[in-house]
Amino acid sequence: MRLRRYGSILLLAACVAAALVMRRFVFLAWYPVVMSAATSAGFALSLFGEESLCYTLAKRIPPHILPPGAKEYCRRYTQVWAAWLFVNGLIAIATIYAPGPKWHLEKAGFDVPLAWAAWNCCLSYCATGLIILVEMLVRRIRFSAVFHTSGSTAEPKRIVKTFRSLAREVAMHLASFRARGVLPRSGEEGGPVFLCTIEPGHMYGMLWRVLLPEAAGCRVDPEVILAPETLLAKMRAAEKVFLVTTPSFLARFCAYAGQYEVPQNCVEVVTSGALLAEKTSAAAKKVFGVAPLEIFGSTETGGVAWRRQGGAEGADDFDWQVFRPVKVKACADGRLSVASPFSCRRWFEMGDGADISPDGRRFRLKGRMDRMVKIAEQRVSLPEMEAKIAALPGVKEVALAVQDGAHGPCLGAVVALDTKAVDVTCGKRALALDMRRQLLPIFPKGAAPKRYRFVMELPRNAQGKVLASRVKEILEGDFIEPFVLETSTSDAQWTAKMFFDRDARYFEGHFPGIPVLPGVVQLGMARHFAELFLRRSVVLRTVKKIKFTHVITPGAQVRLTLEKVGENELAYKYTKGEHVCSSGVMCF
Fold this sequence. Notes:
Helix content is 36%, strand content 27%. It has 16 helices and 26 strands. An 11-stranded mixed sheet has the order 6-5-7-8-9-10-11-15-14-13-12, sandwiched between helices. Strands 21-22-24-25-26-23 form a 6-stranded antiparallel sheet, covered by helices on one side. The longest helix has 29 residues, at 114-142. The relative contact order is 0.06.
């Protein structure tokens, strides 16, 4: 092995010694020719094997994770090197016999053609360097991925990430999971099945449901899991499970899981995209037997830090642990700045405020700095206020947004209620007045929300982040959800028990003196809840088989059932007790 490693140096030393002893330049002149021929032959011969020489060398370079198509790319690159080294050898031969001036070495006793010296001592290395540089640029373009930011607070931005930066992040997580025995080591069998509730198109999905399982040699279930029942069925069919999900799905699953026995075969639960509520983390640990691993980061920076909630009592609140290759610091305005091998640029300033521990390896988040607003001459931190509202009895979660009011900017609140913990029979107007009364002492003077919308759940994107644009649409629109008391869902069917409060506006003006729920409102609500069921936006094309058999009056409790009857068709049915109020089939 040592002879192979130092063979070229030993050959060069022998050639120089022979040239000096024999006083003949020819012994030195043929050294570049021999080396070019030998290396060209090495590259060319490897093309007849299963792996080309470039592919073998690439696998040895950290992070040891290669993208799809790397094998064929390396084979072509090997062909380039074999051809170039062959050409280099021919040029080296030509320079030995090239006419022209020569450089006389008096002590050595021979002449060196200047063409030979120029090519073999300078120009060939420049040409080789140019080939390497061009290949690096081609590789950067060929093996890169284009992502878009979530667009939860602004227009999505286009981000280009190299495969190398993605591979480094995957390698870090793979080493950590293997050290803890969560994933099998190289060559071992019996790894968990990856079950995912996320799409592979964004960066979180690419890393955790495509690259990491492939690097670990684990199987990925191809289905994007949308319903808790689907996850439960797949967990029962697997020996071990690695769950990749979002906080919003965990909240839905944990609320539903108490009705069934959940298999204790989950080796890890990874969540990202939004912050996980402490009560959801505790519920998930109880359900799965393992506390979720939260990843904090962004498309631009990659993973920055991690945490598992439920630490020891008395511990400080620097709960986020910075990943080892990553460095963080606080900017002058309190924003978190990140330097990382996974980042698209060094010292990227994030939109999150943070307090960093003295050792620089932990931090606590202070909320989005771009969500500081001025209301009634008072500066208000929307994340801080949302957390305080969410702490009120009966509130599951809340999202605030700035609106144009009669006397300047004001706040509106979209609130997801725990309908089991509040008295919904009093109506939304009474609930809004009571909530405003509770919030007046909490908010800065004059800054408490003035408009309220109560919903079953907040609007989120595929990564589980609340969509600010949709929050504003809900606050500014005329559509008002009924109270959803309970739900059940499966792959093919979604059912909800609803309560229509007496002061709802949609009972007014349809029939004078007879308040009933109009059919167009029933259809609009069915379409609205269809989006929640399908987890995507839908465009209603037509409705068929419409029937109205019983009226829905204020204060009524009804059950809405949505059922898939075709690829782009959903049957809906409103029932009150034993009576069917209305039904139809929506075509999207």
